[in-house]
Design brief:
Blueprint lengths: L5 H17 L4 E5 L24 H11 L3 E5 L9 H8 L7 E6 L6 H10 L3 E5 L6 H6 L4 H13 L7 E7 L7 H11 L2 E6 L5
């Protein structure tokens, strides 16, 4: 995470050591909704889901108790919740841990929403990506998604700090041959890439 300020980086190291000793988690992912704007082939979720939702204050309380070094806001699609900004703000402590990451498919992403998330306390936006072209639309079953990302992401990176946006790629049997193309696309957009292996354990 090159965009981590030195002071916060030192706190992350110290926090990691502390949590190891206290048997507390280093990273916690808060799935704030199971509803999603996509219906991906590799996921058991998809579409709107009727659910009970914890309040922003409830997530903040859990985060304070767990005291992670890194907190991720994910789903489903977190931007499907209108109060996602309140949740990020409830989890974040300005200048302190946790390091805040929002994981999104980008289908609802706009420049305005990105900066609203940053203002709420997000440090990094992680965008899911499966293919470096329109096959991404088919895999996520969201028409026009790749074109949207191709327009919005460069717009964001031209106005934000380095490494504020990252592309997250789950390596699967469907896309492992496309990794060089994904890296090339990410470079054109001005973002880095995080690779992870996908399994049935998720």
């Amino acid at each position: 995470m090159p965009n981590v300020p030195l002071s916060l980086g030192l706190k992350m190291v110290a926090g990691g050591i502390r949590n190891r000793m206290k048997h507390k988690p280093l990273s916690v992912s808060f799935e704030i909704t199971h509803s999603c704007t996509a219906n991906c082939w590799h996921c058991n979720l998809g579409g709107p889901i009727k659910e009970e939702r914890l309040s922003a204050e409830g997530y903040g309380k859990i985060c304070r108790e767990l005291d992670p070094v890194i907190a991720c806001v994910s789903g489903g699609e977190p931007l499907a919740r209108g109060d996602v900004y309140d949740i990020v703000e409830a989890l974040a402590i300005p200048g302190q841990l946790p390091w805040m990451v929002v994981v999104s498919n980008g289908s609802n992403l706009t420049l305005e929403k990105f900066f609203k998330l940053k203002k709420a306390g997000m440090h990094q936006l992680s965008l899911s990506m499966d293919f470096p072209d329109e096959r991404h639309d088919e895999f996520r079953r969201v028409p026009g998604l790749f074109d949207r990302l191709s327009r919005v992401v460069p717009e964001i990176t031209s106005q934000s700090d380095k490494d504020d946006v990252l592309v997250n790629v789950c390596i699967t049997a469907w896309n492992f041959r496309e990794l060089p193309g994904i890296v090339k696309t990410a470079k054109e957009w001005g973002v880095g890439v995080n690779f992870s292996a996908y399994s049935h354990l998720r």
